[in-house]
Amino acid sequence: MNMAEELKNNQFDLVIISPERQFYHAPVERVTFRTTEGDLGVLKGHIPLTVGLSTGHCKIQIDPNTVHVGVIHGGFAEIQPDRVTILVDAAEWPDEIDVERAKRRMKKAEEVLSSAEAGDPAIKWARYSMLKQMARIEVGSLNEGN
What superfamily would CATH give domain 3-92? Predict the structure, then answer.
């Protein structure tokens, strides 16, 4: 068996869809994303599983030398041995993220948290916004060198 055949045998079909678009669809070797229980890495042959997603990075390894990283926001993933389907509220590539805007939003969320009183509904929004902006800043910064 040659390297190309072996590589293909290690791949599975990955589909990532948001309400706005098909974010990604191609064969991959591995995908790693953040679930509500922590980070999860999936390889071909994974046991069937459905998981809720949290906001965080999504690392897509096409082959040993090619990796793409994006941000996904909420949703769920259905994992099958030869296919992973991820339905998300939103998804972004690094070049789609305005890091400075994310930093401003992060600062605003921090201000809300520091001035909010216990039980204030704004606390929940501010915590979610901070989580979202941290992920956006981390992944968006990958594009700053380009």
Answer: F0F1 ATP synthase delta/epsilon subunit, N-terminal (2.60.15.10)
- Could you tell me which CATH class the domain 96-143 is placed in? mainly alpha
Would you call 50 helix, strand, or coil by DSSP? strand
- Print pLDDT tens along the chain (146 aa): 444 454 578 999 999 999 999 999 999 999 999 999 999 999 999 999 999 999 999 999 999 999 999 999 999 999 999 999 999 999 999 999 999 999 999 899 888 888 878 778 888 888 888 888 889 888 888 866 54
Tokens standing for residue 57? 């990075």
Instruction: Determine phi and psi for 143, rounding to 5 degrees.
Output: -90, -10
From its phi and psi, is residue 27 left (phi > 0), alpha (psi between -120 and 50) or beta? beta
